[in-house]
Automatic annotation (TrEMBL):
GO terms for molecular function: L-amino acid transmembrane transporter activity; metal ion binding. It is found in: Late endosome membrane; Lysosome membrane. PANTHER family: AMINO ACID TRANSPORTER (PTHR22950), NEUTRAL AMINO ACID TRANSPORTER 9 (PTHR22950:SF244). Residues 65-77 have a biased composition (Low complexity). InterPro entries: AA_transpt_TM (IPR013057). It is a multi-pass membrane protein. Residues 182-293, 354-612 form the Amino acid transporter transmembrane domain. Residues 56-103 are annotated as: Disordered. Keywords: Amino-acid transport, Disulfide bond, Endosome, Glycoprotein, Lysosome, Membrane, Metal-binding, Sodium, Transmembrane, Transmembrane helix, Transport. This is Amino acid transporter transmembrane domain-containing protein.
Amino acid sequence: MNRGSLSNSKYQLVVELSDEQRKTKILSLRLSDDITLMIDLIRNYKLIIKGKGIESDSDHEPLTSSTSPQGYSSSMSENERRVFKQENCSSDESENDTQPNLLGALPFSIQKTRMRGAIPSYGNIDEKHLTTNGKENMYDILQKYSNLDDAVTENTRLLPVKKVGFEDSFQEIRKEKTQTNSSLVTIFAVWNTTMGSSLLAMAWGIEKSGLFPGILINIIIAGLCTYTAYILLSINAKHGVVGQNFEVSDLCGLLVGRWAEVVSKIFSLIVLIGGDIVYWILMSNFLYNFVYFLHGYLTGSESVEIEKSPLCLKENILGINETNILPPSGVFPMEITVFDKVWDLYSTVPVFLAVITLPLLNFKSPTFFTKFNSLGTFSVGYLLIFVAIKSVGWGVHIQNWSIEFDLKPTFCVLSGMLSMSYFIHNIIISVMRHNKHQEQNGRDLSIAFGLVTFTYLFIGTAFYITFPLAKTCIEDNLLNNFPKSDTMAMVARLLLFFQLFTVFPLVTFMLRTDIFSCASVLFRNKSYREFSYAKAILVNCFIVFVCIMFACFLPKIGTLIRYTGAMSGLIYVFLMPSLLKVMSLRKEGALTATKLMFFVAMIFTGFLNLISQFFIVD
């Protein structure tokens, strides 16, 4: 009688029994199928020990019975054969290192010390007797093998198949202890990361839109950015793979399509290169002012200051020709010296800055600069105090409050700039992933964006309301409205310079890494991801060259921020979150016409915000 017919005859006997007996018998018969597996294992152990091997003339003989899954055969690779593995290794394994690794060919690797009783030896079992009289001996066999139930414990886990590409992800998830932060630390991290160079341009943006319309636009954009950032977090929670560090581009590729993944990566590069350019312009400005002041102090060169504070650098306000416009230093030099020609803000200073900065960009890992992250928080705090003190000293300077309710035609300047000011969407998943209380992500995100909104509005509105000169004199870098003789302004410049000097290598490192990543995807060559100093120096030189060109020929941070913000905001704030939400609702069967129209309107708003930037002349 073959094994298949024996199995069928066993189950036919169940029909003749009562319900209770039938359930018990079915359970025992199911276990008997597993016992046949163990019989085959014992037989093959005997063959291996005797030196006969398990190979036939052509193919490998399966280690499992014909009724077991086909995947467990000796012809499979080691990673495919080892389906289960015990969490803790027995000390016996270290003592028997010289023995053949028989477990590599087994579907189970069982720790002996986990069993409540020793498994008896069945080397003398008559296999023919087991085959022909299986029904009579089944109960005895089940009793002898009952200890095997305790072998597979809660620590037994599935091993991943490397061909799938998870790279032992489940094992790493179990071993890794991800560092988590409290809600307070998470809120602070989002606030500190979102704060950027827009702080210096916020008063300028409010002047372009009007006071009260500017406040309203600020709140609306902040609400939209908070909502879309929360959409990204919720989509990642629903559709992200557990243990995989998914980002927005990965979600786009998973739900929307490969084109969305490529577009999101490209616009992430635009955000980073835009940030580098703005940082370079600001560092050049701060370095120029500090060295110019230091040179005048050391040489005792004479200069005539127009006013102590504040300054107006606008040509149409001062009524002077272009050659006599006040420099950002706030002074008129008595004559153009050699130093003035060598140390020029829009020609030589950006190049001198490259000599200092470029060597710092070629490190393989910029972890050293992450130690100075706290300097950014200190700089923002000092800037808040600086604006508060100046505002109290100046007092309110609004002649006609009714005009401040009017929406100016250039209000799109502020909307484009705010899209960059509240931009954190490309890394929001990474930042919030370390939150200890994941269920509070929505609350913590809202609080963080609320603090960001308060910071922007305080600096922008306080400076705008109290600025004693014409509001059109407000610069896109508010520190340009103060002369070098202002001690507090000089301290602010130095703090911001050192902050940007440590942040710039980090941003450039991320930009360089993304460029290599995009190149590897575009050319389908993973070697582009590998670090080499030749490639790093080449890319860094290109980035610095682009920054120098903008610092020399278009040193307007307000214009750069609004264009970069409108482009990146279209993709990360309006388009991709809306598409991801629509696709998620579609998968859940919860997409309605009203919801679809709402998200289409959001995308259309992002397009209008971008197009409107091209119709505004600074």
